[in-house]
């Protein structure tokens, strides 16, 4: 039993040394991103000033105005747009996806974030994704600024972190009374107090950290998520022809709203010329994530006919569980309280890394010092 516990402690130590810094980095960047929309707005007040009243919804003409403004500034007919329906008055956030270039870049690599005025008539701000502060931080958190390889590293490190947490709990598991095992010994030597701080910080944050690590791994690796949760595939319909006059956004929205009248509009995706479709991302009752819900309505861009609906309520249990992954990871499923708890949990890995390293170094230093022997006859130290 003693040998097994020593082995688990060694596993915990070396896992902490290997993935601890990465765990702390992901925790700190994740904590900063919990309110990244609000922080970005504070950094760019001219493009985020609120306007009285609600934002444009299902029947607003503003979407067509914004699309016209967008295409006058970015005229490539093959470029795609994604407009966000925030539900709040003020600038309209959007993303522009240019066609893939000939150097191997996808349109997602080159996307640009754009903010339109509340009436859709002006571009207030336009910046390449990944080149302004909060998007740079987002990419660092999501893929370590290393694209697909970085996503794999970040994803698999999530499973390593779960093993790190589990090994810490096993190594700590009391053989005697729980009260003694959970106590903080204020009068103990500094090395013991540091151990207690690390122990109590790890125990109190283990469950939320395991949740963050698991959901982060599933977000980073959709293939693993597909195997573990088996969510229903999102349809990928095509318009019935590849050329013609695109219907107004308002007509496509009206058709989508008739198909899912109880849904709240979240994003309007307008694909470029060809056989692409309008894709409306919507939040249906029971979906925990307001900004990135999991349901979609697909509309033919030339006839305004609904081609497919992906409703998480009827897509199976794996799809519903998958819909909770992002909301649990960023804390938004718990509202403002959940987001604050996500920040606190995100700060915990840095604290665990610091206390763990200090305890390890001081313990090594203590072991390296020569043994102090007490002279039984004189009581003096020699």
From TrEMBL:
UniProt superkingdom: Bacteria
Hydrolase found in the keyword field: no
Pfam families: PepSY_TM
InterPro entries given in the database record: PepSY-ass_TM
Transmembrane segments: 12-37, 153-173, 200-221, 340-360
Keywords, comma-separated and alphabetical: Membrane, Transmembrane, Transmembrane helix
Protein name: Uncharacterized iron-regulated membrane protein
Organism: Allosphingosinicella indica
Highest classification ranks of the organism: Bacteria, Pseudomonadati, Pseudomonadota, Alphaproteobacteria, Sphingomonadales
């Amino acid at each position: 039993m003693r040998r097994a516990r020593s082995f688990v402690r060694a596993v915990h130590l070396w896992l902490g040394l290997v993935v601890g810094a990465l765990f702390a980095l992901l925790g700190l960047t994740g904590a900063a991103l919990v309110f990244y929309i609000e922080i970005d707005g504070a950094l760019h007040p001219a493009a985020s000033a609120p306007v009285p009243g609600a934002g444009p919804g299902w029947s607003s003409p503003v979407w067509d105005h914004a699309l016209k403004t967008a295409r006058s500034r970015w005229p490539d007919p093959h470029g795609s747009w994604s407009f966000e329906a925030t539900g709040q008055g003020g600038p309209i956030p959007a993303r522009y996806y240019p066609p893939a270039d000939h150097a191997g870049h996808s349109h997602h690599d080159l996307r640009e974030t754009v903010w339109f005025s509340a009436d859709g008539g002006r571009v207030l701000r336009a910046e390449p994704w990944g080149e302004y502060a909060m998007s740079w931080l987002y990419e660092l958190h999501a893929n370590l600024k290393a694209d697909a390889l970085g996503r794999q590293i970040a994803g698999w490190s999530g499973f390593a972190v779960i093993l790190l947490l589990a090994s810490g709990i096993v190594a700590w598991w009391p053989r005697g009374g729980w009260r003694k095992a959970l106590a903080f010994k204020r009068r103990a030597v500094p090395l013991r107090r540091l151990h207690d701080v690390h122990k109590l910080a790890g125990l109190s944050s283990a469950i939320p950290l395991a949740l963050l690590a698991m959901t982060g791994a599933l977000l980073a690796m959709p293939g693993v998520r597909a195997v573990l949760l088996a969510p229903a595939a999102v349809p990928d319909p095509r318009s019935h022809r590849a050329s013609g006059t695109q219907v107004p956004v308002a007509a496509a929205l009206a058709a989508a709203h008739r198909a899912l009248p109880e849904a709240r509009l979240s994003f309007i995706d307008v694909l470029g010329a060809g056989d692409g479709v309008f894709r409306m991302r919507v939040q249906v009752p029971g979906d925990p994530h307001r900004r990135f819900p999991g349901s979609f309505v697909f509309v033919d861009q030339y006839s305004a006919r609904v081609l497919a609906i992906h409703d998480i309520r009827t897509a199976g249990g794996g799809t519903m569980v998958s819909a909770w992954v992002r909301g649990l990871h960023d804390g938004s499923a718990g509202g403002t309280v959940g987001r604050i708890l996500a920040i606190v949990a995100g700060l915990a890995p840095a604290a665990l890394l610091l206390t763990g390293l200090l305890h390890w170094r001081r313990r090594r230093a203590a072991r390296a010092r020569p043994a102090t022997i007490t002279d039984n006859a004189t009581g003096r130290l020699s």
